[in-house]
Amino acid sequence: MSIRKHIPNTITCCNLLSGCVSILFTCHNHILWASAMIFVAAVFDFLDGFAARALDAKSPIGGELDSLSDVVSFGVAPSFIVAWFLSRSGIGWWVHNVNLFPMLAFILAAFAAVRLAKFNIDTRQSHNFIGLPVPAVGLFIASLPFMLFRIGNDTMVYQVVMSPYFLLAMVAIFSWLMISEVPFFSFKIKNLRFKDNMLRYFVVIFAIIAVIIMKLAALPFVFLFYILLSVICYRR
């Protein structure tokens, strides 16, 4: 097999490594760096598919490796960030000097794994998604520290996001959405016609305007806009 056939899988492994580094940063309390590495993982996640199509190097192992990498980068690594937040909530379920309460965050990782396993065997998801895509969940969570850093800790938004009730509700809602039958549009673009990509363009335009106005604080709202737009436009 030629070297070019290995390029997409190599990029996918960079996605996986980025997720692992994110976890390490969270463990050392470098939460912004941890979030940044999840965004880096997203870049690699986009590039591996692009490279596979451009090089005609799609393979069964590539699809499986992509899902395994996504579990780590957009399921496990974001769960560590949520656990980091929960560990600072003041709530403790202590067993042998170990606080079990933050471990509730890893429910998200379990549902992410189920979501990706379903995706691998579901032939209905070739163009759009059924269930919230795991990368969208991971990127939303990764965007929260940037927003909090931007707005400061003396705002109501900061208090709400850091609330354990908000965090647990977020885990529950995202876990359900990932394995639900709710349709979500993908960002796979086959042409540039506005009619065929209207929802995608709306998200991009909203993202540009929001970031210009709110800077990094806009990031979570961009992902929420994508979720709401999908639910509204694809409601059954």
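[next item in queue]
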Amino acid sequence: MGHIIQEGDYVLLFLDNRRSYLVKVEKEKDFHTHKGFIHLGDLIGSEYGAKIKSSLNVEFVALKPTIRDYIFKMARRTQIIYPKDIALIIMFGNIQPGSRVVEAGTGTGALTTALAQYVKPSGKVYSYEIRPEFIQTATKNLEKAGVTEYVELKNKDVTQGIDEKNLDAVILDMATPWLVVPHAYAALKGSGIIVSFSPTIDQVVKTVEALKETGFTNIETVELLLRRMQIERGRTRPETLMTAHTGYTTFARKAFA
């Protein structure tokens, strides 16, 4: 029944590539837009992908939300890691079902949400965050995405140590990742992977130096750029605006001395 919209489900009301809305389907609720309002209860029993018209006769499509949708539409208190970088982190970090992963810091919970989707059903994400208000926001976002059971949120300073051992990966999105490198080395299993996402190259240099001093190997830093294309017969070209620099991602693996 996962393809049928039920009360309490989330849908992405898609108008066009610039306008879409993540909403919870409730029987007696109307969703108001500049293109008129939509009776959300009318979607109950329909298949995802069904079309629905607003009170102004404008057509929307009710799509099943993807992880990308949940991330882009989530409530934010901090800047999020973009899906392009999240995808790279998951691939190079070898995140898969059953993985045990420590993440710091949680922030809004965008990366946490994606990691949880990949470690389920038998893995776990342990996410460290020092600011309680961020944990509150992340909790709501994780609940909306339906992945809370795969995440343990911890109001702790990861620079003071990592509680978990025999981890598959440690993923850092924080101002001083080099301070965590020794703790990550102690917490990771042999050949385990550390990933650090940083917006500035100075942070990267300090982190790579710490990785080398601590005993990590296979160290690599990359920057990923994303450019959308404007597709129209006879006028196809790159879009004027692009998601260029968002950060540098550094990967390394634990080697024993």
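[queue empty]
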